[in-house]
Amino acid sequence: MLNIVLFGPPGAGKGTQAEKLVKKYQLVHLSTGDIFRANIKNGTELGKLAKGYMDKGELVPDEVTIKMLESEVGKYAYPKGFIFDGFPRTTAQAQALDKFLATRNLSITITLALEVDEEELTKRILLRGKESGRADDQDENIVRNRVKEYNNKTAPLKEFYLKQEKLKTIQGAGGIDDIFTELCKMIEANAKTV
Ligand code: AMP
Known about the structure:
Order of helices and strands: EHEHHHEHEHHHEH
Radius of gyration: 16 Å
CATH class: Alpha Beta
Strand content: 5-15%
Number of strands: 5
Bound molecules: adenosine monophosphate
Number of domains: 1
CATH topology: Rossmann fold
CATH superfamily: P-loop containing nucleotide triphosphate hydrolases
Mean pLDDT: 94
Helix content: 55-70%
Structural class: alpha/beta
């Protein structure tokens, strides 16, 4: 199985690249942000809880997020692999993911980190907000808070995957197709099963 963590700050292009990778390698795409948004749309209890955090640009608590992610993974009996997009975002989530996958004799194959500088991120997200109507993409204070949460809680995870020798970093500032080609090269050089 090919299990990819797509890593990077909000606005780095994770969602765009995930869609392309999913098509090419026939993976299951699990975006925790998308799952939370679907829950908000459907008015579930989980959605109501998550909304309070998302509206402030804060992370949803680990316990809730981990439980949700595990239940999503459990829905697929024989996938070719997963692409985790926007998860894990904390060390506790990364540890929980490793532990959970191990119970199924699985592991993360590679962590692909997209790097984009902060000013460019804010610009991109605000532009996306105008097009998509996503509330947390439209308010500059919320956007800056999300980037701050990323720097404080998520960026340290690079060290976590570096220690496991799974981290591959790529500049996320170029063209979509060029970045995609780079990502595929990294996957194919590192994953024996592809
Ligand atoms: P995203 O669509 O990945 O930018 O996520 C949008 C929002 O959903 C984030 O700002 C968080 O509030 C919440 N969220 C998504 N994924 C996670 C996660 N793994 N842990 C905690 N909160 C999350």
